Amino acid sequence: MASAELNLQASRPAAEPLERAVADSAAALMARQKADGHWIFELEADVTIPAEYVLFMHYLDERDPELERKIGVYLRARQGEHGGWPLFHGGDLNVSASVKAYFALKALGDDPMAPHMERARQAILIHGGAASSNVFTRTLLALFGQVPWRAVPVMPVEIMLLPRWFPFHLDKVSYWSRTVIVPLLVLMALKPQARNPLRIDIGELFTVPPAQLRDWHSEPPRSRWAYFFRGLDRVLQAAEPLVWQSLRRRAIANAVAWVDERLNGEEGLGAIFPAMVNAVEMYDVLGVPADDPRVVIAKKALRKLVIDEGDRAWVQPCVSPVWDTALACHALLEVGGPVAEAAARRGADWLVERQITDVVGDWAVQRPGLAPAGWAFQYANPHYPDVDDTAVVMAALDRLDQQRYHEVVQKGAVWLRGMQSSDGGWGAFDAENTHYALNHIPFADHGALLDPPTADVSARCVSALSILAGDRRDPVVEDGVAYLLREQEADGAWFGRWGTNYVYGTWSALAALNAAGMPHDAAAMRKAVDWLLARQRADGGWGEDGRSYWEHQPRGEGSVSTPSQTAWALLGLMAAGEARHPAVAKGVDYLLNSRNAEGLWDEEHFTAVGFPRVFYLRYHGYRAFFPVWALARYRNLTTGNAGPALHAL
To answer: Which residues contact 454 (CB under 8 A, 6 or more apart)?
Structure first.
């Protein structure tokens, strides 16, 4: 045997500990399965969500002192060493998050002169004060009378009456923008004031009194479009009081009807926290009684997002049961064996029941005539099936039992193919959502008004459709592969829109190219492999934090290794034919040595994204199913239990 092969054998994790770890970790994952077959893990964002929930209760004067006390424990614990609050674990101070957290803590009764409040106040002022907050934060402050309404860009409710050919139309922005904006338009038109029973104010967070400020544009212009839209905003500010009241009443009625249709029962408008809050406040300002079924169920949907841990509580931005269940099924199918496969089948049967076939959602504006057949991210969200979830669910069902789930998968495939955009890629919820100029309106200072195609979502679609196509050439897949090759960065990585960041995007793309049959020695794969190998940390893992979404920041790097990102890197390398590379063995050792007493992994860092540079996520399930998946695949590819396979993911 050659010395290189001897070295490789020595560096490879022993089969017995690996097998035991796969079995024990899979058992721990299966122990988290619900009785009806699905998995759901907590989904955590930054402190803005629990802070906004506190302020929401004060807005309505519907306080819950015990819940507020518990949320206060959470908010104080999340304060950073810099005095403020970050967007992700270990991140830099974010002014908007810090203003909301400070405001909420003051509403909870924290003394402004307490050390933690003084530190927060000084940190916020050093970073420009509350006037430097983003548009959504300034809107909240306007509702509480902390800033004048001219601090908020005008979004006239008459938008509801615009024809589709108009430069701005709701159909031209993303699903999350639509569901947040429509009820907010009513609030911005009627300009209500929070009840604020304790009369809390945060004037001390401004470097200049808000009444004296004239320029509220906190973000530098990102293009010439920004100058045009800022000028238009000044015109709209002056013209808004002149709007005919009959026209305004008609527009408000349209907005209410739009929300009513999409209220989505106990899962809430759009099944996302900001839209759900805006819906309740819209009904409130319109005088809808508190016992109206719409109000009752909308409040119940919000309350369901609360995670009460006994001594502390926090609030989720949404829930992720379909996503969690589909990914857990993939991990268990990789583990194999009758017990794991039986658990995956229970999960699959639960997923089948949630395919959306009876509601034609907003996506149909761009794809009229296409039959609905996708899956949502949450328990229910029929107007907004998720392309990414649909691809992952289809791939799991097809791998588990092609015959049993054939009809369900084929319906999904028709819808998935139909949602491809003209450039060959896929967005998350809509096709052709690429009116990029709209990202420069003053209201969109977060830069995430749209839902254009992205490499990670497109990779999942290519992966799923490649497996369904088999040996047959599929032009949709070919266009998707061409899109992915165009999106590869010069250094070999791919951008990750929904997971952090280049590690996630590169895994996604490598899995897709492998499933599509690209040779492992292809230049695109070799560049990506080299990029991943160069980012491995000394402990054998991979880690990348949210700073990589800013220009001139390291890509694929962070302060620590994380189990989920290590698993992505390993899955990506194995998809590129590198299962026996020493770096892969080292990464596997990192996972084996970092398991906790439960048999899973701990992960404080945020490894997912809502909006890059604005809103980050910590999927508590990522530390569970991705490492199990990676370890099981490594075992399958290196111990002879299974040969290399073109699995979709």
So the answer is: 425, 426, 427, 428, 495, 497, 498
